């Protein structure tokens, strides 16, 4: 059975028919290099490292990992497709290390073409993206019935937890988190990726208190300047108007979400909320933006410019992307070099007893006995081909293996209940967009097909 995927057509895609490699030629004078090197002399030099050829030194990437290499410690979250565990590695170079293990059921994913595509995209993005403020993928492997992603364990928990406890943030605190998030989004955009689900639940903190973006299940790849896509997805309260109206959206949707997140941090709730999703959508599309008087002029101005409904007027929508936002007066005291170097002091440092501390995660999950549920059915060999190439080992692990071979030699905004914080993806049958977070299922249920039609039709008529 061949894998079938939806193909989205992007406006503005260009293909260069005649590419030339002429620019790759180096002009070097003959006198600048040795045209007749003495190979024996080179081999006898003390500067040449001699390595015994073996399977380990020639191909050190053969660290085979599987479920048996990880001990289940705690459950961090649970959803319709699987679970997220805190695990300890029990073998290999990084024996004893603590990770987060995301387990997905193949049979559930493969029922929907878009779910399959989103899962593969998430795996590919996690491999491609390496950034100080984005979660690191360490391993990826699969069994007959399940997919496994092993990610760094972020023991600081969700930013939502700190917002929930504090009620609102001071502007200096919000500025710290926003600056790190902006650099993470800028990096994704440079790689042609739009995030599409920015919200406090998807922002985790490491043990020092620095930001890490997680949950890449709703990301879209291959979005360049001028390219748009039309998928209806995200979390309503942070969703840009152009997603709701399905008029086509690009990277600017992330800057709308940043504005909604900033407003949430400084006021205690997103800018447009209501008792039900239809009213919330109507407010996003037509409602007046109310800015509290206690906000500074710079904060008010930045929020206004990020929450412009007309995309060309929105800050960050142009070719300069994040640079427009970084140059705003709200960040006038920020050294962006210090931000990327993680030199700024985090406003909250998680109170942790050990590297495997789970106190920042929801006891609803961590108090449950961790069990990786057995697979009720396995896929056929042909169906499994859809997940070909899923296996991955991080370069840092491979470098370590190669090195070893050489050596061996407060409650907030009561009006916005968790039931309203829903994430909508185009999948059927209660797709959950998985995330490494303590409240794994909060606000992540998809709409049923009939509900999706209702919301889509509403947005078209508003």
UniProtKB/TrEMBL annotation:
GO biological process: signal transduction
Domain Protein kinase, first and last residues per copy: 70-331
Active-site residues, as the UniProt record annotates them: 197
Keyword Magnesium: no
Annotated positions binding ATP: 76-84, 102
Reaction equation(s) it catalyzes: L-threonyl-[protein] + ATP = O-phospho-L-threonyl-[protein] + ADP + H(+); L-seryl-[protein] + ATP = O-phospho-L-seryl-[protein] + ADP + H(+)
Region feature Disordered, mapped onto this chain: 404-423
GO MF annotation, one: protein serine/threonine kinase activity
This protein's UniProt keywords: ATP-binding, Kinase, Nucleotide-binding, Phosphoprotein, Serine/threonine-protein kinase, Transferase
Domain (AGC-kinase C-terminal) ranges: 332-402
TM ranges: none
Signal peptide (residue range): none
Superkingdom, natural source: Eukaryota
EC number: 2.7.11.1
UniProt similarity note: Belongs to the protein kinase superfamily. AGC Ser/Thr protein kinase family. S6 kinase subfamily.
Name the UniProt record assigns to this protein: Ribosomal protein S6 kinase
Lineage: Eukaryota, Metazoa, Ecdysozoa, Arthropoda, Hexapoda
């Amino acid at each position: 059975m061949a894998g079938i995927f939806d193909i989205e057509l992007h406006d503005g895609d260009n293909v260069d028919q005649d590419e030339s490699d002429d620019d790759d030629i180096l002009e070097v004078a003959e006198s600048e290099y040795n045209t007749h090197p003495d190979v024996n002399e080179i081999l006898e030099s003390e500067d040449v490292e001699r390595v015994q050829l073996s399977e380990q030194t020639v191909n050190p990437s053969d660290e085979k990992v599987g479920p048996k290499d990880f001990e289940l410690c705690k459950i961090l979250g649970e959803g319709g497709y699987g679970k997220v565990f805190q695990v300890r590695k029990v073998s290999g170079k990084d024996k004893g290390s603590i990770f987060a293990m995301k387990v997905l059921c193949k049979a559930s994913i493969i029922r929907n073409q878009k779910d399959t595509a989103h899962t593969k995209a998430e795996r590919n993005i996690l491999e491609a993206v390496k950034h100080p403020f984005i979660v690191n993928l360490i391993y990826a492997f699969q069994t007959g019935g399940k997919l496994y992603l092993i990610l760094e364990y972020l023991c600081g928990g969700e930013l939502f937890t700190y917002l929930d406890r504090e009620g609102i943030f001071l502007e200096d605190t919000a500025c710290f988190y926003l600056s790190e998030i902006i650099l993470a989004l800028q990096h994704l955009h440079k790689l042609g990726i739009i995030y599409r689900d920015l919200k406090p639940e998807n922002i985790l903190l490491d043990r020092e208190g620095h930001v890490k973006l997680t949950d890449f299940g709703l990301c879209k790849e291959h979005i360049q300047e001028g390219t748009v896509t039309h998928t209806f997805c995200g979390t309503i309260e942070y969703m840009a108007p152009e997603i709701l109206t399905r008029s086509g959206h690009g990277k600017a949707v992330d800057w709308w979400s940043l504005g909604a997140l900033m407003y949430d941090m400084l006021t205690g709730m997103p800018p447009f909320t209501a008792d039900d999703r239809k009213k919330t959508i109507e407010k996003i599309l037509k409602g007046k933006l109310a800015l509290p008087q206690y906000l500074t002029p710079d904060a008010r101005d930045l929020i206004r410019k990020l929450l412009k409904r007309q995309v060309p007027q929105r800050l960050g929508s142009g070719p300069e992307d994040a640079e427009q936002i970084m140059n705003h007066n709200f960040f006038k005291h920020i050294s962006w070099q210090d931000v990327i170097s993680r030199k700024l002091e985090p406003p909250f440092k998680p109170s942790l007893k050990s590297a495997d501390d789970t106190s920042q995660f929801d006891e609803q999950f961590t108090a449950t006995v961790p069990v990786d549920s057995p697979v009720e059915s396995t896929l056929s060999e042909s169906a499994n081909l859809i997940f070909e190439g899923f296996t991955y080992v991080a370069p840092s692990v491979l470098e370590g293996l190669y090195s070893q071979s050489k050596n061996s030699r407060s409650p907030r905004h009561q009006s916005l209940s968790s039931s309203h914080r829903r994430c909508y993806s185009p999948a059927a049958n209660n797709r959950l967009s998985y995330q490494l977070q303590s409240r794994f299922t909060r606000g992540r249920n998809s709409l049923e097909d009939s509900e999706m039609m209702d919301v889509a039709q509403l947005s078209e008529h508003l």
